[in-house]
Design brief:
The chain is of the alpha+beta class. The protein is built from 12 helices and 12 strands. The chain has a 4-stranded mixed beta sheet with strand order 4-5-7-6. The protein has a 3-stranded antiparallel beta sheet with strand order 1-3-2. A 3-stranded mixed beta sheet has the order 10-12-11. α7 crosses α11 and α10 runs parallel beside α12 (228-237).
Length: 274
């Protein structure tokens, strides 16, 4: 009798990993952690890893150093992984770290996508290596005090997903312009966002970040994009006395550059004019 019980138990565990993955996929879940697989199936860690390794094409490990796996549905097999926006929340919950969809990826969620984006851009509080899994790529940016940045749940997302507000997105695009695309491309992405921006929420972002130099550049960009009322809201937030800055910090010296006095910004862009 004991042998029959053991045999039945063993039979139930054969294919347990695949069965659990199928069940999760049916519920719209596309992630699984080794510890959860062991707990829910009764498999040993070694047996669980062995079963997962047999599911190539259906399961992909996010990183060789992390026991975090993605479940690949038939519709995503050609990509080699589900879209990052489907699993970012689960991943950062598992890591125990803050995050939000940011920069051009956030702007795209609000309908501003002047350029086709091949990489998902994510803000977090510590450096992370770029993730490449199948054709899905995630690049991480670091912000101290990330918890102060206003965020919200992304509208229409398949899975829970935090995204910076439209106002915080515009701010980040200017702050990280050098790292992503340059100030001109940042302005190109911000322009379609302007109808969504609210002066009160913009001031809330400026209060949270408290970086006058970035605010000066942001105000310049907003005015250059043609929205004087929002630009005024930024200028009203700034102190009367400003320290001069260049519009793009990466473009070197200020010699012979025109100074826009109300922003105290040396304009080193050939495309953006006020």
């Amino acid at each position: 009798m004991k042998n029959r019980t053991k045999s039945a138990s063993k039979a139930r565990r054969i294919g347990a990993a695949e069965a659990l993955c199928d069940a999760r996929l049916a519920l719209g879940r596309v992630t699984i952690v080794l510890k959860d697989l062991v707990k829910e199936t009764g498999l040993s860690a070694i047996a669980a890893k062995r079963q997962l390794s047999r599911l190539r094409g259906k399961i992909v490990r996010l990183s060789p150093r992390q026991p975090f796996y993605l479940i690949v549905s038939p519709e995503h097999r050609s990509m080699g992984a589900p879209p990052a926006t489907w699993w970012l929340q689960d991943y950062f919950t598992w890591l125990g770290r803050p995050y939000y969809l940011a920069l051009q990826s956030a702007a795209s969620s609000y309908g501003s996508n002047p350029q086709a984006l091949q990489v998902t851009q994510v803000m977090t509080n510590r450096p992370c290596r770029t993730i490449k899994v199948g054709r899905v790529q995630v690049r991480f940016f670091v912000k101290r005090g990330i918890e102060r940045t206003p965020t919200q749940q992304a509208a229409g997302a398949v899975a829970p997903l935090l995204v910076s507000t439209a106002e915080a997105t515009a701010y980040d695009l200017v702050r990280y312009a050098t790292s992503i695309c340059g100030i001109e491309r940042a302005a190109e992405t911000i322009r379609p966002l302007l109808p969504l921006l609210r002066a009160r929420e913009l001031r809330r972002v400026l209060d949270a970040e408290n970086e006058p130099a970035v605010a000066q550049r942001l105000g310049f960009v907003i005015e250059a994009c043609g929205n004087k009322s929002l630009a005024k809201a930024v200028r009203d937030w700034l102190p009367d006395e400003l320290t001069p800055v260049t519009l793009s910090p990466a473009k070197g010296k200020r010699d012979n550059l025109p100074l826009v006095k109300r922003w105290q910004v040396f304009n080193n862009s050939s495309e953006l004019k006020i």
